[in-house]
Predict the structure.
Amino acid sequence: MKVFNSLLSLIFILTITSCKSDTKSTSENTQQIASVKKDIQNIEVNIDGMTCEIGCAKLIESKISKLEGVAVSKVNFEEKIGNFTFDANKISPKEIAKNINGIAGGDLYKVTNIKTVD
């Protein structure tokens, strides 16, 4: 009977201990998830070097929309402006500008200004 009680006590202690550690683990997971939330930002960039709507503006729009973290890519040829919505945890405004500048070997387009917008 003593052995049975000792065994029962051990099982009870292990159960309580494992529940507490599960609770802590869940709490830690929740904190990790909260710290990785999307940081959605919008920027407006001035782009020099565009000469047409289809070949230039649409090309830039298409290339930038394929970058990881970019959610929206819109380029207005008439105004020579690109608007981009992105997750700042995955890509930065400087990286977006670098990619625009690098299209077609870096000889055509140049980002001249980056402005954060709401």
Q: What stands out?
A: Helices lie at 2-35, 53-65, 93-102.
